[in-house]
Amino acid sequence: MSRLKLTTEKMIAEKTGGIGWLTFNNQSRRNAIGFAMRESILLILDDFENDPGIRVIVMQGAGEMAFVSGSDISEFAERRSSPEQRKVYDALSAKVNGSFAAVKKPLIAMIRGFCLGAGVGTAMHADLRIAAEGSEFGVPAARLGLGYPFRNLKKIIDLVGPAKTKEIMFTGRRFSAQEALEMGLVNQVVPGLELEGVVRELATTIAANAPLTIQAAKTIVGEAAKDPSDRDLVLCDELVEDCMNSSDYKEGRTAFMEKRIPEFQGK
Q: From CA 18, how far away is CA 207, in angstroms rounded?
């Protein structure tokens, strides 16, 4: 296992077995995300995305209490009390959102404990969300007087629909892991003691599959979620053609005929 050197101890980045682990490590504040943490997220995602040895990215919260409990409100007086400060803070947040959106590799959120506010927004960046029993989800913006941007709500709407999104936003209440599963906010709910094992097995399975096929699928699903006039169907066709012309396609066919496990290279 190797670990990236970062400028804050509140973020951890580790690599092992083709999996990049991004860990929110602000346990005294239930892994609330602060300014320095956002700066490190940019570095971690860039490193993982450009490392050919990393096939899957998993993000998690340190400890047992929380995935991410929101933004670190204790910084707001220093970081968001004036229009100028809010502009800088919001620009960094937008840059982090853009970095998440640009990740081509599969991204899994391993959720334990509180997943609130910015935690929900962070989890929405993932392609798959696996939650432990007892986890809690919610967006308390209405309890704080915060305005929620279109891009953030659109992600929730795409997953759970307009009615459930309104319930989440209007009430500001917390939803159980089972409620999150029923509304489509998460993919699976598993016993807490099994969470890491389930996620590791899932990530390992994905990491062993053909990277170009997964990248094409992720991109095409993303394009399908856009308005028809905004879809890049040429790109979709190019990605499929890249798969069909790849060495991995040949390896997959050969391995199938030889009844062995394929060794994909992502090219």
A: 6
Compute CA distances 67 → 42, 73, 93, 231, whole Å: 18, 16, 18, 33
- The average pLDDT across 68-97 equals 80
Q: Among all chains, which residue has been given the structure tokens 């709407």?
A: 157
**Cα(233)–Cα(158) distance, integer angstroms:** 20
Joined tokens for residue 89: 């803070």
C-alpha 213/C-alpha 216 separation (Å) is 5
- Domain extents for the chain? 2-207, 211-257
> Model-level pTM greater than 0.90?
yes
Q: Please give the structure tokens belonging to residue 171.
A: 């009430």
Return d(Cα 223, Cα 32) in angstroms, integer. Answer: 31
The Cα-based distances of 196 to 22, 38, 193, 204 in angstroms read: 14, 24, 7, 12
User: SS3 of 201, please?
Assistant: helix
H/E stretch holding 15 reads: strand 11-16
Please say whether the structural domain 2-207 has been given the CATH code 3.90.226.10: yes
Contact status, residue 178 vs residue 190, Cβ threshold 8 Å: no
Among 190, 211, 186, which residue's Cα sits nearest to residue 262?
211
Gap between the Cα atoms of 194 and 104, Å rounded: 28
**Contact call for residues 184 and 165 (beta carbons, < 8 A):** no
Structure tokens at 105: 């590799």
pLDDT in tens, 152-196: 899 899 999 999 999 999 999 999 999 999 999 999 999 999 999
Largest CA-CA distance found in the chain, in angstroms, rounded: 65
